[in-house]
Amino acid sequence: MTTTVERVRRSVEGVIEGKPDVVRLSLTVLLAEGHLLIEDVPGVGKTMLAKALARSIDCSVRRIQFTPDLLPSDITGVSIWDQQRRDFEFKPGAIFAQIVIGDEINRASPKTQSALLESMEERQVTIDGQTHGLPSPFMVVATQNPVEMEGTYPLPEAQRDRFMARVSIGYPSPDAELQMLDVHGGVNPLDDLQPVAHAHEIVKLVEAVRGVYVAEAIRRYAVDLVAATRTHPDLRLGASPRATLHLLRAAKASAALDGRDYALPDDVQGLAVAVLAHRLLPTAQAQLNRRTAEQVVQEILQQTPVPAASQRQAGLAMDRGYAHEPPRGL
Questions:
Q1: Residue 329 C-beta-side C-alpha neighbours within 13 Å
Q2: 61, 34 contact by CB (below 8 A)
Q3: Cα dihedral 259, 28, 44, 278 sign
Q4: Cα–Cα distance for residue pair 215/47, rounded to 1 Å
Q5: 163-175 b/e (C-beta count within 10 Å ≥ 16 → b)
Q6: Cβ contacts of residue 227 below 8 Å, gap of 6+?
């Protein structure tokens, strides 16, 4: 696992300069069978990150440019009458790929955005009463601009809840931006990017991540974090049970990336903001006080008791049948 993931990481970081945390989160979502929402201002490399991740893996890739006139059938596909066969023939849409890049997803109408709901959750598409399965692995990487409101439609709560994590790339450091000028100034680095992993390798990695062990104390810790968002006075909408599941899956993937076959509270803590914040709706009073969902999640992390290290390792050893401490690596 570490060898394959390291190849993909180096490949993506060769395009996205100075953002190792963003690249790691992208790989975490990929191995956790989730979908990624990249939200940031124009020109910081949102689409570049999505393309670099897609091209680093030898799998099918489709890009959808979301516009106000985009139709749901452009995404899912359409049944066309075949004169020779005298029957309807299904023409797959752009969603039938292993990695789907949705550029400026909030520019499409809610009707078009809803075409992604079934595919992102159930990994299938239903057209004219017929259900069509999607390939594996399957991941939607969507981008959106949070500051440009002209001609955009905010993502509904049901849509945001289907994204496992949201990431903001941010501006690069002066040194990274200077290096970007040297690397990107004359050529497009995506032109020379070659696949460094095959789709079947990613499928095996996903299966390995499913087997990562999570002790009961850590599972309860994740549940407590999510439950705290539902009762917090600064939030009018807390995280859903799907968020708890996504947090657990992401923690497993994070542990696997570190070479462990068991998760720690650190894995949950490090992903809580990215997994939970975009699902939360602050109250009107919190917005007047300029309280963000990210700040609320950080506050919940500070207030929620963390499983003690001794209890954590002892519980892990007993649950898994080890006499002393658990194994330290895969």
A1: 4
A2: no
A3: negative
A4: 37
A5: bbbbbebeebeee
A6: 238
Residue 111: CB atoms within 10 Å: 11
Closest by Cα among 47, 24, 15 to 257:
24
Rounded Cα distance, 15 and 51, in Å: 10
Nearest partner of 248 among 279, 277, 217, judged by Cα: 217
β-strands 77-82, 87-92 pairing: antiparallel
Cα(first)–Cα(last) distance of the chain, in Å?
9
Query: Reduced to 3 states, what is the DSSP secondary structure of residue 274?
Result: helix
pLDDT digits (tens, 9 = 90+) for 170-196: 888 888 888 878 777 677 777 778 889
Residue 110, token pair as written in the block: 């809610």
Looking at the predicted structure, is the pLDDT value of residue 324 above 50? no
Tokens describing residue 324: 């002393």
d(CA 206, CA 212): 10
Identify the bridge partners of residue 62 per DSSP, sorted by sequence position: 100
- Residue 104, pLDDT above cutoff 80: yes
Structure-token pair, residue 221: 């810790």
Residue listed under structure tokens 């649950």: 319
- What pLDDT is attached to residue 296? 95
Closest CA to 218 of 271, 176, 259, 182: 271
Within 8 A by CB and 6+ apart from 210, the residues are 252
- The kind and range of the H/E element at 316 are helix 309-320
Task: Quote the CA–CA distance of 57 and 7 in Å, as a whole number.
Answer: 10
CA distance 202 to 195: 12
Rounded to the nearest 5 degrees, what angle is found at the Cα of 32, between the Cα atoms of 28 and 38?
A: 55
- One-letter-per-residue 3-state SS of 108-155: CCHHHHHHHHHHHHHCEEEECCEEEECCCCCEEEEEECCCCCCCCCCC
Q: DSSP for 7-67? A: HHHHHHHTTSTT-HHHHHHHHHHHHTT--EEEE--TTSSHHHHHHHHHHTEES-EEEEE--
pLDDT digits (tens, 9 = 90+) for 257-272: 998 999 999 999 999 9
Rounded to two decimals, what is the model's pTM? 0.87
Position 47: which residue type?
T
